[in-house]
Design brief:
Length: 606
């Protein structure tokens, strides 16, 4: 580590956090950093509460408090002032640091000097974090040692990693993974990467085949292991490393509750090309077939399609995958069934075998809808509606905190049809909740011989343009998408038919005071149909209602599939709704205990 600044610290009787971090790391016998980081020194100011604070209201407060201080050409004086103001603002460190990262000081050189002074001599997590946040944009190579050391302290790992991302991706990834050592599969990799031993890193990477880590860690794993460097150093490497690389890329291409990580993985294009060039070395197993087909779907209609591909490069990779999977022995693997999880995987492969390779020649920006069942492993699948315009996915570029809504909500109810009156349609919603992180809306209207998509609302990236489609071609595409259920499987088809039946006959719900009802498949067991509904008693029933009406929430798993057609299974469920109260069948799992007791209901664990 670099020696800290020779000037006097801000508080002569207080140890700068940088010195303290080096000391704590030096006295650890094995050099291991705790998963949450080293605790701050005794006597550190407690972190203020964020109760009642909102992001919108606090940003101008932080800007008004800090920007004038960052213009001071004397970094010592400016850093002392930032210390005082950071304490006076009484904000949680995460909020304060987030706002500081979004400041644009008019004198960047002065702000950079102040940030460095804060890192070298700062004594509070609030003030040091402000310095880190400023270095996210203004940092340079000389700041790396300070960021790496301070990132070992509790509460400072996240801002340190954000600042390191632009300067040293591997160091940033190691900091992030250090905060996830409770995830056991990551510990050997983190320890190996910290030593810089490429052989040990490769060995640790291969262990992830047996015990996959969380998908949210994929990019950081690839960066910490220098996956691109490993593949470059071992161009003739065996199939195990190729399979690990493909799994990491597939996980990065998932858009869950944040921007897809593949966008932020610098060597993504190079890794895709290197791995897929050697894809024929993978043994032709059903697991590898699933992995290659998942990769093809990512390149065809997922976020990976929007990477910086040169002309024709993405299409060439898809053509190569098409030739590989269509030929022997891969086609034979696809035809084999198996039992249990293998049968589920084989069914998914057969249903999606042609989807990423069936090219359609479209004239103009004609939209195209595809329902992609994203395969994560043998037990879980995510169903997404993907909208392609000019052959590229539309939504990942517009909305970063959730995928397109389920096909049952977008296609089955005719919401994409263009009628005589404009209609606002929700295309995507945040995984947490719309009221938390928003949703993406577009207004669909018919204008003469064209259908227009405009009036966008909720985009997290730049405001999208208006799209104009030929009306006849648009109507034909919507009709095709509504009829196409080839993506579905029996349990999902049963759920969809139940939802349609309840939508067409709302009296089946109202007679039992059921407020909302969803029919879907269980995330962890896609072969099971699940019905969820909420019950709100008539006014006056259910006891006290502080904070709103008392509610009960129920879950009803249908019996295991007995091989009968989905139409018959759905009809039987609708008949049960018509003849008896479903609260007597479903499992009560959440809601007002007073209301449940007043109705003689108990939480069931079966």
């Amino acid at each position: 580590m670099s020696a800290r600044d020779e000037r006097e610290p801000l508080a002569p009787r207080t140890t700068p956090l940088y010195d303290y971090a080096l000391f704590r790391h030096g006295i650890e016998p094995d050099g291991q950093v705790p998963s949450e980081g080293y605790p701050l020194p005794d006597g550190s100011p407690p972190e203020p509460s964020g109760k009642g604070l909102t992001w919108k209201k606090t940003h101008p407060v932080v800007a008004a408090a800090l920007l004038p201080l960052l213009a001071d050409p004397d970094p010592v004086r400016a850093a002392e002032a930032v210390h005082r103001r950071a304490a006076d603002l009484l904000m949680p460190h995460r909020i304060l640091h987030g706002h500081a990262a979004r400041l644009f000081p008019p004198d960047e050189d002065a702000a950079r000097r102040t940030a460095r002074q804060l890192l070298r001599t700062g004594t509070t997590a609030a003030a040091v974090g402000v310095g880190m946040a400023l270095l996210i944009r203004l940092g340079e190579a000389e700041d790396v040692p300070y960021l790496k050391a301070l990132g070992m302290l509790r509460g400072l790992g996240s801002p340190a990693a954000s600042a390191l991302d632009r300067l040293d991706r591997q160091a940033a990834a190691l900091l992030v993974l250090s905060g996830r050592t409770s995830c056991e599969p990551l510990e050997p990799l983190r320890a190996a990467a910290a030593t810089g031993d490429a052989g040990a890193v490769r060995t640790a990477l291969l262990t992830l085949e047996q015990e996959p880590p969380p998908a949210s860690s994929a990019r950081r794993i690839a960066e910490a292991a220098d996956l691109h460097g490993l593949l470059h150093a071992h161009p003739e490497d065996d199939a195990e490393l190729l399979a690990v690389a493909l799994r990491l890329l597939h996980s990065m291409s998932r858009q869950l509750d944040h921007r897809a990580d593949v966008f932020d993985y610098g060597p993504a294009v190079a890794v895709y090309e290197r791995v897929l060039a050697a894809a024929d070395r993978l043994p032709p197993t059903l697991a590898h077939h699933t992995l290659l087909l998942s990769t093809a779907l990512d390149l065809h209609s997922g976020p990976a399609a929007l990477l910086g591909w040169g002309p024709g490069r993405r299409e060439a990779l898809l053509d190569g995958l098409d030739r590989l999977l269509a030929g022997l022995p891969w086609a034979a693997v696809r035809a084999d069934g198996g039992e249990g999880a293998e049968a589920v995987r084989a069914d998914w492969v057969r249903r999606n075998a042609r989807l990423p390779f069936a090219r359609t020649a479209a004239v103009g920006p004609l939209p195209h809808w595809e329902v992609a069942v994203v395969h994560t492993d043998a037990a879980t699948s995510a169903v997404e509606t993907r909208i392609l315009v000019d052959g590229l996915p539309l939504l990942p570029a517009l909305f970063e905190v959730g995928p397109c809504v389920r096909p049952e909500l977008l296609l089955d109810n005719g919401r994409l049809r263009a009628g005589p009156r404009p209609r606002e349609v929700r295309l995507a919603s945040a995984y947490c909740a719309e009221r938390c992180c928003g949703a993406l809306y577009v207004t669909i209207r018919r204008e003469g011989t064209e259908v227009v998509w405009d009036g966008w609302r909720g985009a997290t990236a730049s405001q999208p343009p208006a799209y104009r489609f030929d009306a006849a071609a648009y109507d034909a595409e919507v009709e095709r998408a509504e009829r196409d259920h080839s993506w579905s499987w029996p349990a999902r088809s049963t759920a969809r038919l139940i939802s349609t039946g309840l939508w067409e006959r709302p009296d089946l719900l109202s007679r039992w005071d059921i407020e909302r009802c969803w029919a879907l498949t269980d995330w962890h067991d896609p072969q099971r149909t699940l019905i969820q509904f909420s019950f709100v008693p008539p006014d006056g029933d259910g006891g006290p209602r502080e904070g709103g009406p008392a509610r009960l929430f129920f879950e009803w798993y249908l019996p295991d599939d007995d091989g009968s057609p989905p139409q018959d299974r759905a009809a039987a469920v609708l008949e049960q709704f018509a003849g008896s109260d479903p609260k007597g069948i479903a499992r009560l799992h959440e809601g007002s205990r007073a209301l449940a007791e007043s109705l003689g209901l108990n939480w069931r664990t079966d």
